[in-house]
Amino acid sequence: MPTGIAVRDAREQLFAAAERVLLRAGANALTSRAVTTEAGVAKGLLHRHFTDFDDFLTQFVLDRIDRIETRAAELRESAGTGTVVTNLTGALSDLFESIALGIVGLVISRDAMRARLREARGSGVPVLREATDMVRAYLAAERDLGRVTADADLDTLAPTLIGAAHLLFADREGPTPQTGDVEKVVATVLTDAVA
C-alpha cells in the first residue's frame, strides 16, 4: 500500500471498511489486515490512530452504537404516528438488517474487546442493550400517549421484542425475514399491551 498520502477521516474510512468486511464475511474474518486492505490503506494507518486492534474494534462498536442511539431518538419521535406495531416492525427490521448482528457476533467472540466495552458502557451485550433501551423508551412514549396500556411491563416487553427479532434475523445464511414475519412477532408480543 502506498504511504505518505494523506487520508481524510481515516477513522471513518477504517470503520466503513470494517463494516463491509463484517457484513460480507463475519466476525472471524475481521482482522487488521482485512480492514486495511478493504480500506485501501497501509496497515500502519490503523495503528497510528488506535493503540491496538481491540482498541480499533472497541471504537468501531461504540461508533455504531451511537448510530443506534440516533435511530432510537427517531423512533421515540414517531410515537403517536402510524401504529405501534408498524413503528416497531420497521425499527427492528432496520436494526437487525444492518450491522447489528455482526457486531453482536463480534462482541461475543472477542473477550478483550468485550471487557473494554463493559468498562465504557456497562454490563450487558452491546447493541442488544442499546436496542432494548430504544424499544423501552419508545413504548414508554406510546404509553404516555395512551397507545400502550398503563400497566404494560416495558421491562419485560422490550427485551422480549429484541430477543425475538434477533432470533428471526440470526441466520446469516438464510433468507432475510419478511416484514410480515417481523410484524407477526411484534403483534404477538404486544397483544395485551397495545391499547
Structure notes:
- This protein has 195 residues and is an all-alpha fold.
- The chain folds into two domains: 1-49, Homeodomain-like (Arc Repressor Mutant, subunit A, Orthogonal Bundle), CATH 1.10.10; 61-189, Tetracycline Repressor, domain 2 (Orthogonal Bundle), CATH 1.10.357.
- It contains ten helices and no strands.
- The protein has helices at 10-25, 32-39, 43-49, 53-77, 84-97, 100-109, 111-121, 128-144, 154-169, 179-189.
- Helix 5 packs antiparallel against helix 8 (128-144), helix 5 (84-97) crosses helix 10 and helix 9 runs antiparallel to helix 10 (179-189).
- The longest helix has 25 residues, at 53-77.
- The model is unreliable at 1-5 (pLDDT under 50).
List keywords for this structure.
0% strand, Tetracycline Repressor, domain 2, 195 residues, disordered N terminus, 2 domains, mainly alpha, single chain, Arc Repressor Mutant, subunit A
